[in-house]
TrEMBL record:
Cofactors (names): Zn(2+)
Organism: Helianthus annuus
Superkingdom of the source species: Eukaryota
Entry's EC annotation: 1.1.1.195
Gene3D superfamilies documented for this protein: Medium-chain alcohol dehydrogenases, catalytic domain, NAD(P)-binding Rossmann-like Domain
Name the UniProt record assigns to this protein: Cinnamyl-alcohol dehydrogenase
Entry-linked Pfam families: ADH_N, ADH_zinc_N
Family: Belongs to the zinc-containing alcohol dehydrogenase family.
InterPro entries in alphabetical order: ADH-like_C, ADH-like_N, ADH_Zn_CS, CAD-like, D-isomer_DH_CS1, ER, GroES-like_sf, NAD(P)-bd_dom_sf
Length: 360
């Protein structure tokens, strides 16, 4: 028989969890494993709120078991390390992103692409190697194998840096992989939310010329003045879309609401790539000719592996890249979820876990 969250492990933990598809989060006492030989235990200081958290707590992808404690943009301070841990010591600043385990024997794992391992273990709502469930960062502390723990660069802020662990790497990785990381390349970013604003910052730091596509004309000022995008196009405006025809080497599409990709493919130069990182529920309508006539490509990309995530954090620290955030206490989390659903946040909520989560 499955053990209760409180009694699976010896170490008491405290956090916020959803207990049913209403997705309402409330305090939960659960447990975490004792620090194993290769484990790093840390006190959680900050945790970003990702749109995936909302999908999971409402079981919108049909894979959720309750109770679920979300959060995969987690930063904190190491409090204990196992006897065989090599990379970390007590007091170090660390982060954990979307993954806490993988098979370590497949082709993807061998290539440092744990995010494409078929047996990857996600940071929350998954079954760990020992058969118990994983709990995310809306909680007082965290324990993970050191391989899945990131070293936090000294000059990278902990609170506004937290969202880099999902939103950051999800946009950095495709920019790198698809060659959109060079001075002068022309990159489009569709959607200006948590992912989109990170994509603009990384693309600009790589030296790319960036065009933001948004359905909201009011976002022009934020895009051009705030984020230093070079161009802004209202994607509903056919005339503006036509003016962008055949101008871009690649596009990072972050939108998770249903939308048409034909106008975006039209904005690509020959050999251009449209990379999907948002995940609309409805399938896209794709005409073969829209690809054939310019040898264009539609691709997808998930988060990056651990090696690349560390590289991304170091790059962000070097170039002063953080997320624009609104820092909230944990008892505001349900309100924050509602606001996120209405895109009423610039651009990421981050929970001030250590200062607002008090165990009873
Ligand atoms: Zn995420
Ligand atoms: Zn693997």
């Amino acid at each position: 028989m499955a053990k209760s969250p409180e009694s699976e492990h010896p170490i008491k933990a405290y956090g916020y969890a959803a207990r049913d598809t209403s997705g309402v989060l409330s305090p939960l006492t659960f447990s975490r494993r004792a620090t194993g030989d290769k484990d790093v235990r840390f006190k959680v200081l900050y945790c970003g709120i990702c749109h995936s958290d909302l999908h999971f707590i409402k079981n919108e992808w049909g894979v959720t078991t309750y109770p679920i404690t979300p959060g995969h943009e987690i930063v904190g301070i190491v409090t204990e390390v196992g006897s065989k841990v090599e990379k970390f010591k007590v007091g170090d600043k660390v982060g954990v992103g979307c993954i806490v385990g993988s098979c370590n024997s497949c082709e993807s794992c061998a290539k440092d692409l744990e995010s494409y391992c078929p047996k990857q273990i996600l940071t929350y709502g998954y079954i760990d190697h020992d058969g118990t469930r994983t709990y995310g960062g809306y909680s007082d502390h965290m324990v993970a194998d050191e391989h899945f723990v990131l070293r936090w660069p000294e000059n990278l802020p902990l609170d506004s840096g937290a969202p880099l662990l999902c939103a950051g790497i999800t946009t950095y990785s495709p920019l790198r992989h698809f060659g959109l990381d060079k001075p002068g390349v022309k990159v489009g970013v569709v959607g200006l939310g948590g992912l989109g604003h990170a994509a603009v910052k990384f693309a600009k730091a790589f030296g790319a010329e960036v065009t933001v596509f948004s359905t909201t004309p009011a976002k022009k000022q934020e895009a051009v003045e705030g984020l230093k995008a070079d161009h802004f196009i209202v994607s509903k405006d056919q005339k503006q879309m036509q003016s962008a025809a055949s101008t871009l080497d690649g596009i990072i599409d972050t939108v998770s609401a249903s939308h048409s990709i034909a106008p975006l493919l039209n904005a690509l130069k020959p050999d251009g790539k449209l990379v999907l990182v948002g995940a609309p529920e409805k399938s896209f309508d794709l005409a073969a000719f829209s690809l054939i006539t310019g040898r264009k490509m539609v691709a997808g990309s998930a988060t990056g592996g651990l090696k690349e995530t560390q590289e991304m954090l170091d790059f962000a620290a070097k170039h002063g890249i953080t997320a624009d955030i609104e820092l909230i206490p944990i008892d505001y989390v349900n309100t924050a979820m509602g606001r996120m659903l209405k895109s009423d946040v610039k651009y990421r909520f981050v929970i001030d876990v250590a200062n607002s989560l008090k165990a009873p």
